[in-house]
């Protein structure tokens, strides 16, 4: 597996121009995804992680628009390529998996029709060749008796199976990058385990870069190589998974990790972050987290920059913690 | 698949202080200029209808004001009583403009009244069917199905043949024809709402059935029904005009637009077109205005966009 | 059944709940012609016995189709059991009438999963919370505003919000309003059906802390239903694990997590990702969760069980004690 970057995102800004004001859903996000590695985008609702994923795929509709930044992929800047070229990338070189597999699957067509169509959209092949590739993709994601299952309709599958089919469709053209937006959030724990197993295996075997968008830190712990923690449209902490989870510097990351029940004494009140995520239309000036932060003071009225430390651990805070979690 | 602003910023946007669902509805409604135009037009039509005696140059049903010699005057010609026949006069010397104003009164009045009564009966039937289910539901819905499988005109014709002519009888006929649409719409809405958790919560709190039906279920089933009301008002007006045109609707003494159109029908191609034409245009304007409002209401009340 | 002392506040004895989709006219006709169609029967809950003592928190865990939500609704008197008895303070709910029935209904309240659907979108907060106590005469018309304010404060909300509508609040706030609504009728028992699953992580901690505080302040008893084992471990005294309508294991919390007996419990615990395990090799448990329309014969878990024996496919294992307060339904425990 080469360590070459599959995708480089530089200072991406996607803003939504609504009648109530401008919502800066993504406001200066930068990260790099390497081939064969898993990068996790972690955060709660409204933090901009989903919009980042959609921006990379250039699927943001008005009133939203990418206003600035670069998305460097195989020599092109995805922010600036014409739509025709982007369509060539989508599905073939970059694929996306959604939280609800029914966003990928058409309920009135059987699986074979949909997968063959997906194959033929980006490759010239005969129908039987396309069918063979579809079969192969289904067995890659662990679906038994794929030839039979091709003729089934989405409603005949369970939730976990549908998600596997969605992953299979994403893999049809061996993309260099897959963006997975909360694909296991709606699934049961045992089924989630199966999907994570498959995702991990495929990443390693095919060398695909994977961006995993989630709010679940425990999933991230087991799966990811690198983590970006997002808050109010910005990355507040970024680094290797062990670095960030064992030595979180940003108060928000600490708060998130601290509030997980397994890190608290049974039966006692959990450590909690006070307050709520602010509305994107009325962000507090300066650091967006300062109204909820136990360490905030006058300095935080300025907006902190993302400073990168020695081992690549990046922080956006004027008062970062130093050292181990819990100190 | 595309993401729109709603998904990204929905959890972070908080509406203004105390903004009721109604005010939000009005704000959303006014986003379409066409719909606002429709609303203004309808308001104008309604105003004219209500104020007919005050704004009409002539009372076309007061025989003392009519003069046969002024019959079939073209639009714009002066009348002997001092005003102008802005839209011409019919074969009896009646001012078409005044006839339209009075006719709108009848048409709108009958249309709206019958729609409202049908609305009341329909939502009662629909709510009952959805809430109680079982045999009652099947019974009510089969009646609805049978009703809806006959053409509206046919039912109205039969009813009027039995009941005879008159404004009240027309209203009965229109109500009979319409209530089934409301019942069906409310029932499907109520079936969905009935299983929502806030209704379960109301059961958990041991609230009485009546309260659950009218305080919880009904207000949340109304949005799609409001749309049906607007469409049905237009439909009722058109239906009444048709019946009057065919001569079995309202009697000559309370003529509606349909009757006016019927009066001038035989002259349509022989030069005095205005007797039928202008009442027809008036009918068109009224119905189009209502439909424009109904279209925008349907979009705005779409539950998918409601959250 | 549970480890706590005293008579149970709420008890279920061999409760089953079936949902039957009856044959319609066409199918009945087809049967007359010899088609042999049967009605679709879903055994959502199958002979469950459970007891909750006053002041206790019982956690109910399981995955989709296990019947925990249905069981919760039976406990909350929203669904009648098809067979078996549901008891409140030792009395069969089905036999209660009039004021007693109403008192029992108000004593058990439910907190729902979806904060968006569980509040009437056309009512103000003041009415949502104040409607029931007013209707049942718990407060008078003059007192209700102060009463509502008090409740909102108790759940951590600003009382000035009482004129607002649900759509103006976030998920966490709506859930607090739902809790205030339930508390307004002075219940003793709360059935919490996945109350925090739909919320953001940082808000989950806040609402969970609220549950802990209310339990302490008001002496409440909970049936806490969740698929999130970490949360259940934190709040529950006693845990019951469900699979396809049956309880397969129940024990005090620490016991279940330290010494899980049933293969399903073991698989469930192994599948839960934890913060400490980095770049782990996820283990895949075989197979899909079967549909409740067509549960396997014998032990419902045997098609996915790594230790399944001949016996497991024919004989459903009974729930047997295997330790103090610890029960499990598995043939492997027989010698």
Classify the helix fraction of chain C into a percent range.
Answer: 25-40%
What is the H/E order of chain B?
HHHHEEHHHHHHHHH
Strand order in space, largest sheet of chain B: 1-2
Number of E-state strands of chain B: 2
How much of the sequence lies in strands of chain C comes to 15-25%
Morphology of chain B: elongated
CATH topology of chain B: MetI-like fold
Order of helices and strands of chain C: EHEEHEEHEHHHEHEHEEHHEE
Give the CA-CA distance, first to last residue of chain B.
Answer: 19 Å
- The tally of domains of chain B stands at 1
- Provide the gyration radius of chain C in Å: 22 Å
Strand content of chain B: under 5%
The overall number of domains of chain C is 1
- Distance from N terminus to C terminus of chain C (CA atoms, Å) equals 23 Å
What do you see in this structure?
The complex is a heterotrimer of chains A (327), B (307) and C (335). Chain A is an alpha/beta fold and 327 residues long. Chain A folds into 2 domains: 232 residues, Rossmann fold (3-Layer(aba) Sandwich), CATH 3.40.50.300; 70 residues, no CATH class. Chain A is built from 10 helices and 12 strands. In chain A, helix 3 packs across helix 4 and helix 4 packs across helix 6. Chain A is globular. The N terminus of chain B is likely disordered. Helix content of chain B is 69%, strand content 1%. Chain B is elongated and about 75 Å long. Chain B is mostly helical. The two termini of chain C are 23 Å apart. The radius of gyration of chain C is 22 Å and the shape is globular. In chain C, strand 11 and strand 12 form a beta hairpin. Chain C has 10 helices and 12 strands. Chains in contact: A-B, A-C, B-C. At the A-C interface, helix 6, helix 7, helix 8, helix 9 and helix 10 of A face helix 7, helix 8 and helix 10 of C.
């Amino acid at each position: 597996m080469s360590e070459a970057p599959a995708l480089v995102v530089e200072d991406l800004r996607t803003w939504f121009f609504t009648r109530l004001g401008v919502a800066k859903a993504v406001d200066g996000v930068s990260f790099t995804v390497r081939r064969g590695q898993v990068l996790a985008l972690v955060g709660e609702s409204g933090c901009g992680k989903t919009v980042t994923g959609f921006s990379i795929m250039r699927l943001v509709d008005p009133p939203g628009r990418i206003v600035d930044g670069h998305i460097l992929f195989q020599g092109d800047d995805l922010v600036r390529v014409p739509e025709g070229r982007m369509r060539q990338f989508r599905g073939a070189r970059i694929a996306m998996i959604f939280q609800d597999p029914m966003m990928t699957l058409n309920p009135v067509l059987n699986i074979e029709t949909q997968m063959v169509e997906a194959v033929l959209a980006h490759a010239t092949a005969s129908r039987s060749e396309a069918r063979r590739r579809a079969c192969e993709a289904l067995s890659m994601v662990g679906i038994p008796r794929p030839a039979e299952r091709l003729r089934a309709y989405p409603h005949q599958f369970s939730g976990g199976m549908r998600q596997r089919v969605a992953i299979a469709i994403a893999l049809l053209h061996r993309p260099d990058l897959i963006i997975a937006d909360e694909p296991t959030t709606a699934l049961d724990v045992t089924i989630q385990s199966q999907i994570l197993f498959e995702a991990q295996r495929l990443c390693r075997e095919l060398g695909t870069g994977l961006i995993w968008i989630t709010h679940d830190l425990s999933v991230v712990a087991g799966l990811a190589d690198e983590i970006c923690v997002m808050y109010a449209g910005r990355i507040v902490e970024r680094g290797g998974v062990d670095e960030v989870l064992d030595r979180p510097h940003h108060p928000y990351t600490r708060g998130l990790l601290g509030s997980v029940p397994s890190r608290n004494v049974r039966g006692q009140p959990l450590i909690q972050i006070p307050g709520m995520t602010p509305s994107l239309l009325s962000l507090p000036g300066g650091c967006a987290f300062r109204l909820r932060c136990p360490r905030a003071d006058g300095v935080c009225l300025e907006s902190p920059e993302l400073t990168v430390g020695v081992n690549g651990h990046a922080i956006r805070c004027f008062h970062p913690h130093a050292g181990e979690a819990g100190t | 698949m595309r993401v729109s602003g709603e998904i990204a910023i929905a959890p972070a946007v908080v509406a203004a202080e105390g903004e009721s669902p109604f005010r939000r509805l009005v704000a959303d409604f006014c986003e379409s200029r066409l719909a606002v135009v429709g609303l203004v037009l309808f308001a104008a039509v309604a105003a004219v209808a209500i104020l007919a005696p005050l704004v009409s140059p002539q009372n076309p049903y007061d025989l003392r004001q009519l003069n046969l010699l002024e019959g079939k005057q073209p639009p714009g010609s002066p009348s002997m009583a001092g005003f102008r026949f802005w839209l011409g006069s019919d074969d009896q010397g009646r001012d078409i403009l005044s006839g339209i104003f009075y006719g709108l009164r009848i048409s709108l009045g009958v249309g709206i009244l019958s729609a409202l009564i049908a609305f009341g009966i329909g939502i009662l039937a629909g709510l009952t069917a959805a809430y109680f289910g079982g045999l009652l539901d099947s019974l009510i819905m089969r009646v609805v199905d049978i009703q809806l499988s006959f053409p509206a005109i046919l039912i109205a014709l039969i009813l009027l043949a039995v009941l005879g002519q008159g404004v009240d009888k027309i209203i009965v006929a229109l109500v009979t024809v319409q209530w089934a649409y409301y019942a069906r719409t409310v029932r499907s809405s109520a079936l969905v709402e009935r299983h929502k958790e806030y209704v379960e919560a109301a059961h958990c709190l041991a609230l009485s059935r009546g309260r659950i039906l009218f305080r919880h279920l009904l207000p949340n089933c109304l949005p799609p029904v409001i749309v049906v009301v607007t469409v049905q008002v237009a439909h009722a007006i058109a239906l009444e005009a048709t019946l009057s045109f065919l001569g079995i609707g309202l009697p000559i003494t309370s003529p509606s637009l349909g009757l006016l159109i019927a009066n001038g029908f035989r002259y349509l191609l022989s030069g005095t077109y205005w007797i039928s034409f202008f009442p027809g245009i008036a009918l068109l304007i009224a119905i189009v205005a209502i439909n424009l409002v109904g279209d925008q209401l349907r979009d705005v009340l779409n539950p998918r966009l409601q959250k | 059944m549970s480890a706590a002392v005293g008579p149970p506040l709420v008890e279920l004895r061999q409760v089953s709940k079936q949902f039957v989709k009856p044959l319609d006219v066409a199918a009945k006709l087809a049967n007359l012609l010899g088609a042999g169609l049967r009605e679709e029967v879903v055994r959502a809950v199958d002979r469950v016995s459970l007891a909750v003592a006053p002041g206790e928190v019982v956690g109910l865990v399981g995955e989709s189709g296990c019947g925990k939500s249905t069981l919760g609704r039976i406990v909350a008197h929203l669904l009648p059991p098809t067979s078996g008895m549901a008891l409140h303070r030792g009395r069969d709910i089905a036999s209660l009438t009039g004021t007693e029935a109403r008192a029992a209904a108000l004593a058990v309240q439910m907190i729902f999963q979806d904060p968006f659907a569980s509040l009437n979108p056309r009512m103000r907060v003041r009415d949502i919370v104040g409607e029931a106590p007013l209707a049942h005469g718990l407060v008078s018309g003059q007192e209700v505003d102060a009463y509502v304010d008090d409740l909102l404060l108790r759940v951590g909300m600003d009382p000035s919000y009482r004129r607002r509508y649900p759509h103006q609040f976030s998920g966490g706030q709506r859930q607090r309003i739902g809790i205030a609504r339930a508390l307004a009728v002075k219940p003793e028992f709360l059935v919490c059906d996945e109350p925090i699953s739909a919320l953001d992580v940082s808000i989950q901690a806040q609402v969970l802390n609220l549950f802990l505080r209310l339990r302490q302040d008001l002496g409440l008893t909970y049936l806490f239903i969740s698929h999130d084992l970490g949360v259940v471990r934190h709040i529950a005294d006693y845990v019951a694990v469900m699979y396809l309508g049956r309880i397969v294991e129940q024990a005090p919390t620490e016991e279940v997590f330290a010494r899980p007996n049933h293969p399903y419990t073991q698989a469930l615990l192994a599948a839960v990702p934890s913060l400490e395990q980095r770049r782990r090799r996820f283990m895949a448990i075989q197979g899909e969760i079967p549909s409740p329309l067509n549960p396997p014969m014998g032990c419902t878990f045997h098609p996915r069980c790594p230790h399944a024996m001949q016996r497991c496919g024919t004989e459903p294992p009974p729930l047997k004690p295997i330790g103090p307060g610890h029960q499990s339904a598995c043939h492997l425990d027989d010698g």
